[in-house]
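hey so u asked for the seq, here:
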Amino acid sequence: MPGRVLALTLLLASTVVAAAPPSIAIILDDMGYERSRGEAALALPEGITYAFLPHAPHTGDLARLARRQGREIMLHLPMQTVDGRPMDRGGLHMDMDETQFQRVLAQDLAALPGAVGVNNHMGSLLTRHPGAMAWLMRGLAEHGDLYYVDSRTHRATVAEQLARATGLPTSRRDVFLDNDPNPVAITAQFQRLLRKARRQGSAIAIGHPYPETVAVLARELPRLAERGVVLRSVSAVIAQQRRQGTWQASSSPSQTVAKNSKRLP
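ran it, structure tokens below
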């Protein structure tokens, strides 16, 4: 009899989880560059998550406005690219030793009080390096209850994998909304986001505070309820993924470089 009760309880619990509506999270990156675009982005419906560059000229004022509005904010952390593009101030790169790496990371986090998560800005080189990503995730774990979202700026990224291995709440970007800033293309990517959410149970998109992106979101987000989709913060979607079992711990590539060396090879 106890076994039957347990089985029924598990069945009911799984039914409740399965009945949850599909969820989307939208991250607007590169916040802090331009005040007017940032203010327009913050006028969008509640539920969007805003990723601020740590030392952009308007990060302080816009992040304070976001916090007053009760918005979820995250650190948009600059990282080194394959093509050598100049990084924003506060960037992490391959020439750092671990002491420098952790010092810059701490300064970036301190520049954005109230941030609850992190994603990478650029980083097509650094996110492929297991040693650097192990340093990053250990550093984030030491700064409180932060999550990490892998922006997936390169297909060979190991960032999400190392976040899981460290035990951080984590997920990945499913859709880029505005690589093509044409409103028609942004709308098509938004529809793709909804399809992924229905298929997977949830999906995360990354966009930018472009006027075209803001206009598409202002038009499309109020229609989510009639489509049976819910907009949630990134932290809520990550929690949902963990409850539904789509978040699973995984082993990482060898971390001996990060553990045994003071400088990245």
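The beta strands are 23-31, 49-52, 72-79, 117-122, 147-150, 170-172, 175-176, 202-207, 230-231. The longest helix spans residues 2-19.
lmk if thats what u needed
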